[in-house]
Amino acid sequence: MEFGPHFFLASLEGAVNAAVLALMAVGLSIVFGIMRVVNVAHGEFFMLGAVIAWWISTLAGGHPAVGFLFALIAAPLIVGAIAAAADHFVLRRINYDPERTIVATIGLLYVLQQTTLMTFGPEARPVEAPFNKRLALPWFEKTADGFSMYWPWGLSTTSYKLAVIAAAVIILIGLWLFMTRSRIGLIMRATQLDREMALAHGIPVDKVYALVFGLGAGIAALAAVLIVPIQQAHYLMGHDPLLLSFIVVIIGGLGSIPGTIVAAIFIGMSDGIISVFFSPTVAKIIATLLVAFVLIFRPQGLFGKRSA
Amino acid sequence: MLELNNIESGYGDVQVLFGVSLNVQPGEILCLLGRNGAGKTTLLKSIMGLLPLKSGAIHFNGTALHTLPAHNIAKQGIAYVPQGRRLFSELTVAQNIEVGLMVQGRSNQTRERVLDLFPRLRERLKQRAETLSGGEQQMLAMARALSTEPRVLLLDEPTEGLQPSMVALIDEVTLKMRSEGVAIVLVEHHLDTVLNIADRVAFIENGRNPETVSAYDLSRTPEKVMQYLGVN
Ligand SMILES: Nc1ncnc2c1ncn2[C@@H]1O[C@H](COP(=O)(O)OP(=O)(O)OP(=O)(O)O)[C@@H](O)[C@H]1O
Ligand SMILES: [Mg+2]
Q1: Could you tell me the pTM of the whole model?
Q2: Fewest CB within 10 angstroms: A6, A63, A98, A207, which?
Q3: For residue B42, how far is its CA from the centre of ligand 1 (angstroms)?
Q4: Do residues B159 and B139 lie in contact, with contact meaning Cβ atoms separated by under 8 Å?
Q5: Residues with CB under 6 A from ligand 1
């Protein structure tokens, strides 16, 4: 394939990456922004979402769309409930102390991962996409009389991949509206800005925290359900998304949702493109270097505010 | 009405209050007067449930406030204007007021009444709180508290750093609340304000309350001020 169409193909793969990464990272960012908790177990909530999607789609049988739709609703709810319980029984007990929450969520990571290994097993298991039509894509070339369109061999994507991108956009817009327009969003932001004043204004901060931790994990699970028809469910699948979401959240500015989304698009796209042209390892090395530079020259992130 | 009985409290291992007893009645302004670091802010935070009591009790019309979780104190009808304003900085004026209205589920009527007290805020409803001037921020902190339609109002240095006309406006609103029967606890360093609007004055010294006197008595025995504040 020529460079033009090849790059276009790589960008499409990158866009799918970016869509899922944006969801993951926003979940991490909301939790950090509001609760000041660095959730090292975030990748495991993603993994659980995928495993539960496999489980539900296997139980459901029939047309793959039935199980998938059911998983799309049930997996985030189940994972969100598990996370809210973890908040209640673990994080609240240690008073959300920053160092201790890191250790606690590392513990949670292993508990979730090993429990999955013991029950689900070490195999990677596929989930069938609800629809998966191959779509050939056109490209343009310059000829003597202007541009003409043609269909390069191998330049194609699937309807499902495009649907993943669209779904991520819709979910992110929905989340944005929820945070900025709804009453619960207002309560969450007030809690983020001044926890003590939130308490003094009747806001049950404990409940807000459980909700936020559940919401962050639920979004990760949702991202996993979307990607599992492309990627397969596996008990170690949470590692890379966790690393990449940390990179995104640091580059975007901790707790800044717009910054997180912009950084996710940038990192997701470039990770996809560099992986296609070079190798996934090179992509990770470059992303990690970028984080190092951001930490040195702009520790608050590209969009974060310098704290006073 | 609001009654503090021998309360001891502080921050972690650091005890700040050593047995303070006070009470404030409806339609009364009780001023807390004391040096920097005496424990006035700590006292108000303890009432709001933001600091746990080591001992003692706080009752409000028979309800034991010190046994309630912090987020339930405001719902009992107690509103707090903290020192330094502590607005929800990235929220708009309207949203800050909205948080106040939610405490007791107050309606638009309350909102209108509060905005009538501070017309400058009505012109700036969409502005982020952090971009307001100092005086406007103080108005908003008052408005947020009054949006709960409280029966007890705790004011921690509400006129700190304000120009005279703004001080007058805040004092005017405070007096209006008193006339509506709100019980008010006011922390204030300006002695003339204290003598002007307080009904009683509680001295706070090293986390204790050695004496509470009426404002009238205080105006006749100014040496007390010298004794507790080291100024006159
Ligand atoms: N978070 C905290 N941790 C530990 N000690 C604190 C904390 N906040 C205040 N203190 C201490 O408690 C004491 C009382 O402080 P407080 O803020 O109640 O004083 P104040 O009477 O309000 O003074 P000011 O007039 O300066 O506002 C001070 O010695 C202060 O250093
Ligand atoms: Mg103070």
Answers
A1: 0.92
A2: A98
A3: 6
A4: no
A5: B 11, 14, 16, 34, 36-42, 83
Q: Tokens representing A308?
A: 């006073």
Enumerate the domain spans of chain B. 2-77+150-229, 90-144
For B203, the enclosing helix (H) or strand (E) is strand B200-205
Per CATH, the number for B2-77+150-229 is 3.40.50.300
Could you give the dihedral angle defined by the CA atoms of residues A99, A105, A111 and A115, in that order, rounded to the nearest 10 degrees?
-170
Is residue A200 within 8 A of residue B74, CB to CB? The reply is yes
Number of neighbouring beta carbons within 10 Å of residue A155:
20
Q: Are strands A156-158 and A134-136 parallel, antiparallel or unpaired?
A: antiparallel
**CA B213, CA A74: separation in Å to the nearest integer?**
64
Q: Which two tokens stand for residue A75?
A: 């997996």
Q: Which among B71, B89, B91 has CB closest to A202?
A: B71
3-class DSSP state for residue B189?
Answer: coil
Residue type, A61: G
| Torsion (CA) B192, B196, B201, B203 in degrees, nearest 10 | -10
- Mean pLDDT score, A35-61: 94
Considering every ligand atom shown, identify the ligand nearest to the alpha carbon of residue B35 and give its number: 1
pLDDT in tens, A264-303: 999 999 888 888 888 888 888 888 888 888 888 888 887 7
Q: Which amino acid is at A277?
A: F
Burial class (CB in 10 A: 0-12, 13-18, 19+), B208: middle
**Residue A153 CA: distances (Å) to CA of A110, A149, A269, B116:** 45, 13, 23, 70
Pocket of ligand 1, candidates B8, B11, B231: which has the most ligand atoms within 8 Å of its Cβ, to mutate?
B11
Domain ranges of chain A: 3-160+218-297
Which tokens hold the place of B111?
A: 């909102």
